[in-house]
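Postdoc handover notes: sequence design on the structure in folder B. Input tokens:
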């Protein structure tokens, strides 16, 4: 992969907390549409609290990352935040 500064991309983590299990299909559809930017993904069900936590590592232009995070955050019962690398 090229150096991120050369190709204009950023590495980031989109952290997602799912409080509404009915939202999972919509989350998966958005992530599927963004699959070209996803480096890796980890999901953890936290049964004691009735929530799921998903971490998605991405490498893309900041605008694309923000768009995906925004779509996820607008889903009912879903919180999404993004942390960007400094490189």
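Designed sequence:
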């Amino acid at each position: 992969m090229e150096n991120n500064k050369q190709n204009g991309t950023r590495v980031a983590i989109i952290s997602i907390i799912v409080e509404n299990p009915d939202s999972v299909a919509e989350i998966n559809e958005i992530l599927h549409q963004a699959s070209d930017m996803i480096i890796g993904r980890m999901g953890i069900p936290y049964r004691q609290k009735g929530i799921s936590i998903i971490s998605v590592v991405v490498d893309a232009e900041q605008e694309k990352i923000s768009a995906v995070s925004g779509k996820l955050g607008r889903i009912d019962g879903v919180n999404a935040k993004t942390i960007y690398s400094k490189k």
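Context for whoever picks this up: The CA atoms of residues 13 and 57 lie 5 Å apart. Don't rerun without checking with the PI first.
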